[in-house]
Structures are given as C-alpha cells and as structure tokens.
Amino acid sequence: MKIGIIDTGVDHTHKRFNHHHITGITLLENLAKEISTIENSFNDIKGHGTGILSIIVQHAPFIETEVVKLEAENGRISEALLVRAINYLLDDHDIEVINISMGIRTNDPSQELRLACDRASKQGVILVAAVHYLHDKLCYPAHFTSVLGIGQGIVESKYKFRKLENRSANILAKGGFQRVAYPGNTFRFSVGTSLATAHFSGIICKAKLENQWDNIESLNKWILKNSDPSIISLTKHDSKINELNHTNTPALSPGELYNSLRPAPCISKVAIYPFEEKEMQSILEFPQLFPYQLTAAIGNLRSIKLDKSISLLEKQGIPYSFGELEEQTYNTFDTIIIGYFLDKLLDQNSYQGYSLIKECVKRNKNFIVWDRSVNDLIHSVISDSTTTYTGKVFLTAFAKQDKENLYASMEHTVLKSPSICVVGTNKKQGKFTTQLILKELLKENGYKVSHLATEPQGIVLGADITFPIGHNGTVDVDIMEWNKSLRFLTQMIEEHTKPDIIITGSQGSILPKHPMNDSNAAEMLSYVKAFYPDALVCTISPNDSLDYIRRTIDVIKAFVNCEVLFYVLTPFEYTIHFNNQVRVSYRQLDEMEYQDKLNYFNENLDSPTFNIKNKDNSQKIIDIIINKFSKG
C-alpha cells in the first residue's frame, strides 16, 4: 500500500524510518507565484513532516510513502501550491490515501482546490486533512465534503477515534501532547490537529492492509462500526456547525455603531492579568489615557522580566499579587482585563488563569479580553456555572456581524478629517507608543484626535475603535473587504466624534527582511492601503539600511499617494539568527550609540528623524503636522 504526504518534507534518514521506503519531491513557489518541481528532494528543515510520518508508521510500518514538500519563498503556502501537490499525488495511481496535516484558513476556497479534492473522491483516493485548531474557523481542504476533516480528541488509545456528524470535524483522533520524530535522529513533543490527522491516516492504512475496507463506501461503513462515542474534544472540535443567520440587518446610527464596538459603560474599577505582558505595560506607561481606576494587578506564577512592570506598579501605588486572590482583592474591582495567558502553554499559568476566570464569573465580574481563546474559555465557564452570570464580556474584535452592521448603516461620503498612519520597517519599534504620544501632543495643542487602533489594548487607552490584526488577530473579515470596512469605520468615527485628525498604525514590517520572518508583511501593507492615510510617520531600527527604508516607503507609495512627515528611531537593534527556525533578538543601544544613529539618519533621509519620547522634539513634530495640513 502507498500513502501520499503533503507537508514540510521528511528526514528519511531518521531511525524511526529504518526499512521504510520513502520517495518524494519539493514543489517550490517563488515570489512571482511560479511553481517549480525539484525531483528527489524533500529534506525536512522545519521538522513538521518528519513528526507526521513517524506517527503514521506507528500504525502501518510497511506502507510506501511519497512525500511532497511544499515550500514558498514568501513563507506562506498558497492554495495553488496545495492544488499542485494534490494533483501530483493523484497522478500516481498506486496512492490510496493522502495525508494533509495542514490547511488554508479561508471562508472562500478556490474552485481549483475543490476540483482537486473532487478528483480524489472520483478516483477513490481518501483525503485526510487537519481542521483548524480553533474549532470555529473554516480550514480547507478539511471542510470539503469530499475530505475527512480531523479534529483533536481526548483519546485513551492512539488506535481509537470517533466519527462525528454535522460537527466542526468529521473525526476526532489523538492530538494531545505526544512525542514525535524530529530531524537529526531526535524527538520532540508536539500537539494539535495535524497529529490527530496523522493518527487517523495510520489507522485507516492499517485497516486497509488487513483487508477491512477496499473503497470509500466500505471505509465509511468501517468508520461507523469502529467509532468510539466516549471520545470528547476539549478543543471543541465536536461542536455543532451553526447555520448562518440570513435575516436582514437593521440600520444603526453612527452613535449606535460606535457604542456597539466598545466596552460596556458600567465599568469603573479594573484589575489586569497578567500584568507582565507588553499590552498591559502600555496601560501602566500611559495611565493618563486609561479611563478607569486601576485597583489591582495580577501576575503569572511562573514569569520572567518583571522588573519594569513592578517598578511602574509601585510608582503608581497599584497593589499587585501572584496566584490565588484574597476575597478583599476581588472586592476592589468590577472588571478584569485578561491578556494572552494561554499563549505560553505552561500548565501552572493556564490553571491559574482558568481558576481566576471561574472566581470572577462566580462574582459576576465584567471581562475585557484580547484573545478569542480566552473569550471562549470564559463563555465555557459561564455555560457550566450553576448560577446566572450577570456581568458583561467584551472581546476586542471586528466580527462579521460588526461588518454587516456597518454595511447596512453607512453610505459612502467624502471624508473631511485628515489622517496619519504610523508604519514601520520592523517589529518592536514602538509604533503603538508613537501613536499614543502623537495623540497626546496634538491634544495638548488643542486638537481633537480620533484613534483607530490595531492593538487590542487601544480600546482602554483612548482609541475610538480597534481593528486587531496583530498577535492572535480577531478581525473576522476577509482581507478583500478591508477597504470597504475600514472606509466605513473611519467614516463612522468621523460622523460620531467630529475629529480634527484621525490617527492609526500598522503592525510589524511592510517588507520582509527574510522570507521566513515576514511578520505578515502583505497583511500589514493591505491595512495601510485599505485605510489610505493622507500622511505617514515611519518607525525605523538602528541597523536598517537606507535602501531598505526607502524601499519600504516606495512600496507604500505605490498604493497610497502620501508622504512621510518624519521618521521615529527605536533604540532597539535587531539581529536575525538562522538555525532550524529563523529567530530575531534585540539589543538596546546606549545613549551615545543612539545619538550617533539619530544623526546619521537625519543626515541621509529626506525627512527628519526624531526620538519620539524626547519632549524637546514635541514642538518640531507639531509644527510638521500643522504645516502639512494647514489650509493657508
């Protein structure tokens, strides 16, 4: 029997694959979207595909394997690349199962991808693909009816699985924490739907070798017969698929729209958790913008780099603690802001956050959260509660319903307020901090400023609306609709707040410094293009080349007809490290090094460069902005 695997390649020299026959190719997509084939080459640098095959051969050690390694110069696997891989394997008529432990997150898959999957079904080839790790996100090809979509279940034995009907996944299999092969004859621990997919592919290959099925119809019967109904999914891949609501959306006034995208007005006294996160540090660094009374700060039991946060807390006289709270602390706040505590996957911190949420739900505290996974956890706790929860839960997001409300309520009009967008050449440059400082400077000079933030914490730091596109982004609108959505959002802000100027900012970099570290550059450019500002402020890093800075601005200007008012120099110098994975580290320049770089860029760039935090520059910055938008 022969199986096809579409992944990051395989280390065929690994001891796990002794006596196992593996062949393969690489499909490479260049920056011009041209796809080329590299014969007999499928070495696994990232390690994912090696782990996937090591799971499959646990079940079926004697199958042949044809590997298709997918590689893209821009770092993103496209539908076209996946389609080419599926069709390549379908041309090999010995292949009976194709394992795809990956997928394309989209609400509108291409016709070509659908046809490739339909072709597999007609040929009798079984496609087994991973659903998204977030159960409510569509992911293809797993969600095509011609494909078996695999979710993550709590499974007693790796040989067990569960068949589902009308759920987020077709099958639940073992996707929990487990040891898998890794390139270089080593092993690593991993978790996720991609592993569950490999287990199920291995299970059905073993059954095929034992003559328990011989076509799609008999396989479906075998799956039903051997399904274990006791298996559940903590990741909610056994959730029912909700039908779309096709009722007409009523029109709302700009004020109603504005308020629907903001936290409830009942919030007064607030706690934050975990206080050491950078998003929480923004709250501590700009207390004058925080509209609530900060009464408590809670840190993770296991955390590092606390000195700066603790110093800010002590300076402002805000009590802080770690671990379980005393009852008197709960009495000091009505609302808790919760960050990304689930990111680190440390059991101690995760359990601490979970326990804190349960105690806050029990006491009917309001929640403001950045992360959809945390939001889902809160609602799960509320559902399991034996009492009625009367608090409010606000997720900083721009959801499909928000888009529908906008589209139903707004009509295109000419924007009157000028706008500035803060862009950058890299991460960790203080783009959000720059926006907050600009907003403060303009307000101090008598201007009314509105702020459309792409950072979630913007909503509690004076931003009118958030459009969170950065880390764990919560914008549910297809990128093709950003132009219209952002135009209407800006228009709504203008009609409701009547500002003198509107400020926003992108995230990450506009151009990739390295194909494997592009910070979703295309998405960030799409944001700037969709917002279409009247002027730019560009943050730069000390070791950016002049050519790289100019190319960044040239790319933006190709889509947006505007100029750079000035540059803002971050004190953090970056270094890119090339190992198994591309990693970036940062070093803060000393005062003399920083001043030398500031002088260098002022001498060589066509607009001035500032230290945005130096108040001696405030009047110069204000003068530049006023001169740009002066009608005189």
UniProtKB/TrEMBL annotation:
The keyword Nucleotide-binding does not apply. Keywords: Hydrolase, Protease, Serine protease. InterPro entries: DgcN-like_C, P-loop_NTPase, Peptidase_S8/S53_dom, Peptidase_S8/S53_dom_sf, Peptidase_S8_Asp-AS, Peptidase_S8_subtilisin-like. Pfam families: DUF1611 (PF07755), Peptidase_S8 (PF00082). CDD domains: Peptidases_S8_S53. Residues 2-227 form the Peptidase S8/S53 domain. GO terms for biological process: proteolysis. The active site is at D7, H48, S194. GO terms for molecular function: serine-type endopeptidase activity. The keyword Hydrolase applies. Residues 409-615 form the D-glutamate N-acetyltransferase-like C-terminal domain. Belongs to the peptidase S8 family. This is Putative NAD-dependent epimerase/dehydratase family protein. The lineage of its organism: Bacteria, Pseudomonadati, Bacteroidota, Sphingobacteriia, Sphingobacteriales.
